[in-house]
Amino acid sequence: MRRLPSLNGVRAFEAAARNGGFAGAARELNVTPAAVSRLVHLLEQRLGVALFERAANRLQLTSSGRLYQAGLTPLLDALAQLTADVTGRGEGHIVTVGVGPTFAIRWLIPRLALLQREAPGLEVRITTGGAAAPFSDGWSCGIELGDRHPPGLVSEPLFSADLLPVCAPAMAAGLAGPGEIDSARLIRVAHAPEDWPRWLAEAGLERLRPAGPVFEFYGQALQAAVDGIGIALGLRPYIDDDLRAGRLVAPFALSVPKGRPWTLVYHPRRREEPGFAAFRRWILRLGAEEGGQGRLIPPAGPVP
């Protein structure tokens, strides 16, 4: 038998911790601050630990409170999403996709109109977790870079993730070959420090040390490249639309596999859900089509 605390107390504490106090939680839960305080106090008694340090005009989480809130927020988010999925089935199929912000903005969202035409009753809800967070049970599926996932999940390849230097057309015009790369112009992505060394090694430029601006996400780095700040190491499929439109060009022909494919990840039980089944068919087909097309995009700049 599960030994669970009061859900009302848990909701009150999590809202107070997230909003920075009882007043903010009270507004969210549509109760009085005194009611929130009372529920949290009862929860603390039930747990036998203090979750807040209370002082005049100040409320601060204890170490136990921080630990509890860090675990509760994603659990309650997943419960809310699961409830929405279940209760929304009468109005139409709902698919919740966990994906990184750059993939969502640069690939998935621009293609949702195609899905709407193919499955007009399907509602796609995007939550930007992806590589930044572990797979959530509240998701219908995730789109992630890599094929190593916790036991019990299905992982299906979508397309390869290739690394290709890209920059603005004006900058590419001044590059005759990889040997003319200025290390100060090599734009870096903070969470992928291995990308440039991988490509430079394949280009025979192992001694070159990237020293350009650092951005948190690929999308930010690519926007910096569009704006002429430097050369970004583009990750496919993020760059394919920009290459086709001419916003970015590939000054060198060398494309290097990142070593991990893009994959569709989901629980086996989701296969029986009509909404997810439609999404899965669509994205696997599109991934196969665009994966092949992406490798055929020619570089728009000089080829070494």
TrEMBL record:
MF term (GO), any: sequence-specific DNA binding
Q: Where is the HTH lysR-type domain?
A: 5-62
Q: What GO biological process terms does the UniProt entry carry, in alphabetical order? A: DNA-templated transcription
Keyword DNA-binding in the entry? The reply is yes
**What UniProt keywords apply to this chain's record, in alphabetical order?**
DNA-binding, Transcription, Transcription regulation
One Pfam family it belongs to? HTH_1
The family annotation for this protein states: Belongs to the LysR transcriptional regulatory family.
Name-wise, this protein is: LysR family transcriptional regulator, glycine cleavage system transcriptional activator
Q: Which organism is it from?
A: Muricoccus roseus
